[in-house]
Design a protein that fits this description.
CATH topology of the largest domain: Jelly Rolls
CATH class of the largest domain: Mainly Beta
Structural class: alpha+beta
CATH architecture of the largest domain: Sandwich
Distance between the termini: 55 Å
Number of domains: 2
Number of helices: 12
Length: 372
C-alpha cells in the first residue's frame, strides 16, 4: 500500500502539467468530424462505474474499447507478478477524453491493468465494430488513428518529462519494428522515397537533442540509437536548449535503444512540442528523413495515406510506451523480458506473415534508396 501512495505522490508532481495541457481532454473532439462522433455515439454504450472497477487486465486482449467521458482512470503495473503477495504500482492517471483498450486494434495485448480511480462515466465500443469501421471508412480511420497516436504520445511524454520515475536503467532494445512496414502500401513507400533523403550519423553523435523541435520524420535504416533524458528535476526545455548540446546531454543515461526500422523522435512529430529526450547514435548509423512540412501537406490531402501512416505511428509509439513503462518499477524490467518471450511463443502464422511482409517492404525501400 505504501508503494501505491508513493507513486500517487509522484504522479501529483506532474498533474499540474497535465491539467495545463487541456488539449488532451478534447483530442477526440478536435480530431474527429461530426460524422465520426455521431457514429461513435450511436454505436457506443454509456455507463457509470464505481471507483475501483477494473476495465482491463494486463497481458489480455479486450473485446471492448473504452472512452472516459467523466472521471479518472489509473494505469497500474504488477511489481512482483511471480511473488506470493502481488502488489500493483500506479504509473499514470488518465483524465476525461482518454481511450483505453487500443492494443486490441493492433493485435497487441495490454501491458497494464486499468481501473477507475473515482466514480466515472465510460462509453464502450465493441472492438469488432471499430475494426470494421476503420477498414471501410478511410476518413474515419485517418482521424481516429491520429487521435490515438496523440493520446499515446502524451502518455509517453509524461514519463520522459519525469525521468526520475524510471527505476530500471539499461540499453535493452525495443523489439524489432520492421513489421510495421507491412501496414504501408508500395505506393506509400514510393512517395516517402521520392521526398526524403538519407543522412549518416557518426557514432556518439546526437541526431535529436532534448528540448529542440523535430523538423522531419526519421526512420533508422541501419545502426542503433539510444534514448536518454535528463535525470534530475522537471523537464525544462528552455534550460536544456540554451545550456548547450554537450552540457545538456553528455551525462544522460540511456534507458532504451532504437533498432533498424524505428522512428527516432516520433513522439514530437504530431504535436510540434519540444522533444523531451535525446537521440544519440550508439554506432555509425544511417537515417532516412522526410521534411515535416512536406509530409504534413501529404497527410492533409490524402486520407488513404494518412490512415495507414497514423496507424503505423500509433503502433510505433505504443510499442515504445510499453517498453518504457516496464522500467517504472524495480522488478518490472525482468518481468517484461519474460512477457516478451511469452508473446514470441504466441505468434501465429498471420503474425509471422505480416512481419515477413514488413521486412520485405523495408528491404525494398533500402534498395530504392541505394542502400546495401
Amino acid at each position: 500500500m505504501s508503494r501505491y501512495y508513493s507513486w500517487k505522490s509522484e504522479i501529483c508532481l506532474y498533474d499540474r502539467h497535465v491539467a495545463s495541457n487541456s488539449s488532451m481532454a478534447d483530442t477526440l473532439l478536435r480530431e474527429l468530424s461530426n460524422t465520426d462522433l455521431d457514429w461513435m455515439i450511436t454505436r457506443g454504450e454509456r455507463s457509470r462505474l464505481p471507483s475501483g472497477q477494473q476495465l482491463l487486465s494486463a497481458q489480455l486482449n479486450s473485446d471492448l474499447l473504452y472512452v472516459l467521458i467523466e472521471g479518472k482512470l489509473g494505469l497500474t503495473i504488477m511489481e512482483k507478478p511471480s511473488a506470493a503477495e502481488q502488489s500493483a504500482a500506479l504509473i499514470d492517471e488518465l483524465g476525461q477524453g482518454e481511450v483505453v483498450g487500443v492494443g486490441a486494434l493492433f493485435d497487441m495485448p495490454e501491458t497494464n491493468s486499468v481501473n477507475t480511480l473515482e466514480p466515472s462515466m465510460i462509453m464502450t465500443l465493441p472492438i469488432s465494430k471499430m475494426q470494421a469501421k476503420l477498414a471501410e471508412d478511410i476518413a474515419f480511420a485517418a482521424h481516429f488513428y491520429r487521435a490515438i497516436a496523440i493520446m499515446l504520445s502524451g502518455r509517453l511524454r509524461r514519463i520522459f518529462e519525469q525521468p526520475g520515475r524510471i527505476q530500471h536503467w539499461g540499453e535493452r532494445s525495443a523489439k524489432e519494428v520492421l513489421s510495421i512496414f507491412g501496414e504501408l502500401r508500395d505506393s506509400d513507400i514510393d512517395w516517402l522515397v521520392s521526398f526524403g533523403e538519407t543522412q549518416t550519423v557518426a557514432a556518439d553523435r546526437v541526431l535529436l537533442q532534448a528540448a529542440r523541435p523535430v523538423d522531419a520524420l526519421y526512420v533508422l535504416l541501419d545502426g542503433q540509437m539510444s534514448i536518454s533524458a535528463p535525470q534530475e528535476g522537471n523537464f525544462n526545455p528552455l534550460y536544456l536548449c540554451f545550456s548547450g548540446l554537450e552540457n545538456s546531454t553528455q551525462e544522460q543515461k540511456a534507458f532504451a535503444t532504437i533498432s533498424k526500422g524505428g522512428m527516432p523522435g516520433i513522439i514530437s512529430f504530431l504535436d510540434f512540442r519540444p522533444l523531451p529526450v535525446t537521440i544519440r547514435a550508439n554506432r555509425d548509423s544511417l537515417v532516412f528523413a522526410v521534411p515535416r512540412q512536406t509530409l504534413v501537406t501529404k497527410l492533409q490531402v490524402d486520407d488513404s495515406f494518412a490512415s495507414r501512416f497514423y496507424r503505423v505511428i500509433a503502433i510505433e509509439i505504443l510499442e515504445l510506451l510499453q517498453t518504457v513503462s516496464a522500467r517504472l518499477t524495480d522488478s518490472a524490467a525482468f518481468n517484461a523480458d519474460d512477457s516478451e518471450d511469452l508473446l514470441d511463443e504466441e505468434l501465429d502464422m498471420d503474425d509471422l506473415q505480416h512481419m515477413s511482409e514488413g521486412a520485405k517492404k523495408f528491404n525494398w525501400m533500402l534498395s530504392q534508396l541505394g542502400v546495401a
